[in-house]
Design a protein that fits this description.
By secondary structure, the protein is of the alpha/beta class. It contains twelve helices and eight strands. The chain has helices spanning 2-17, 30-42, 48-57, 59-65, 76-88, 91-105, 208-217, 236-244, 262-265, 268-276, 278-289, 301-325, and strands spanning 113-122, 130-132, 160-162, 169-171, 180-190, 196-203, 225-229, 247-251. Helix 1 crosses helix 6, helix 3 (48-57) packs across helix 5 and helix 6 (91-105) runs parallel beside helix 12.
């Protein structure tokens, strides 16, 4: 893992040079910041304060980040302030692209067969913060945990918004499940080894998965590609848009109505695409359990997209470590 990150950071060196000014107080080197954030994802460290505590006594962490035995560890507030510069510099996307480029150079990516999927990411905001737009709120009876009564009140994203995270939307995974304030995360994975080749986070709307999938697939290519998906993508408009992009929509068919006919399902590749769909589910599972994305710790759409992109890059690094070690 250290050798992989060394090679990738060497590619990113010009990006790092543009982040910091030559004047003012010394800041934390961006390579060390990224290595520390990478450790936080790999070892499921819940907060920056706990991460700094680990760096105090964990020699493995110190070696990976690049700190000497006698080097002082950063104060958590200083670490988070410097981390915000990475957010502003859009380093997560550059880091993700560098990891994908490393995998492509090793010949590990498929450029023809893909799988797309989306998942709900629960926002760091309580339903108590979901209030009617423009309405005056009475003083809370308890600042720490105020009493809120929503009985009889119809709430929707058109009339209400969260005062804690306005970008979060009221969303539920399926009928019969509870609604939560959430974002949607979207992945495009290649079918050879399950590596993520594109990623984004969007607002949690009913059509966001299909709209994001078309963005992740990109522009029309000369070579015909395939994309697998679940039943949520079995919609006539999405199937037609995929074909316009020269992409065969290998999506699961709905029971009552389906937009996918025998032109697609008669091929053996359709069955293979359905079997390969579990690869992207494995990525989501790792990112939510190990990568701390089951409950977001950041607010705002841009920051959520940054964290999702960075976590996807770390997942690819873990897969690359396994794939390259067995090569």
């Amino acid at each position: 893992m250290r050798r992989l990150t060394d090679a990738i950071f060497e590619r990113l060196s010009p990006e790092f040079d543009r982040l910091y000014s030559d004047i003012g107080r010394p800041s934390i080197p961006p390579e060390r910041l990224l290595r520390a954030l990478l450790l936080q994802v790999l070892y499921t460290v819940r907060s920056e304060a706990l991460l700094m505590e680990q760096l105090q006594y964990n020699l493995l962490f110190r070696w990976f980040v690049g700190l000497g035995l006698d080097d002082p560890v950063w104060v958590p507030t200083v670490f988070t302030k410097n981390r915000d510069r990475l957010y502003e510099g859009d380093i997560a996307a550059a880091f993700f692209d560098a990891v994908v480029g490393h995998a492509a150079a090793a010949g590990l990516l498929s450029d023809e067969h893909f799988t797309v999927d989306g998942t709900q990411l629960e926002a760091w905001a309580s339903l108590k913060s979901f209030k009617r737009r423009g309405a005056a709120s009475p003083p809370p009876d308890d600042r720490g945990n105020p009493t809120v009564n929503f009985r009889g009140e119809k709430r929707s994203n058109q009339t209400h918004e969260s005062t804690t995270d306005p970008d979060a939307q009221l969303h539920k995974k399926a009928d019969g499940q509870k609604s939560v304030l959430a974002y949607l995360g979207h992945l495009l994975a290649e079918n050879r080894h399950g590596l993520i080749v594109n990623v984004c986070a969007t607002a949690a709307t009913g059509t966001a998965e299909r709209e994001a999938a078309l963005i992740l697939l990109g522009r029309r290519q000369r070579r015909r590609r395939t994309v697998g998906g679940d039943k949520n993508y079995d919609v006539a408009s999405f199937v037609a848009a995929c074909r316009d992009l020269n992409v065969a929509p290998h999506v699961a068919q709905k029971a009552q109505y389906t937009a996918v006919d025998g032109r697609t399902t008669r091929h053996a590749g359709y069955v293979i695409s359905q079997r390969k769909r579990k690869l992207v589910e494995q990525a989501f599972g790792w990112m939510k359990t190990i990568g701390l994305l089951r409950k977001l710790r950041h607010r705002g759409g841009e920051r959520v997209d940054w964290v999702l992109t960075f976590t996807a890059a770390v997942y690819n690094l873990v897969r690359l470590r396994t794939l390259l070690s067995g090569a």
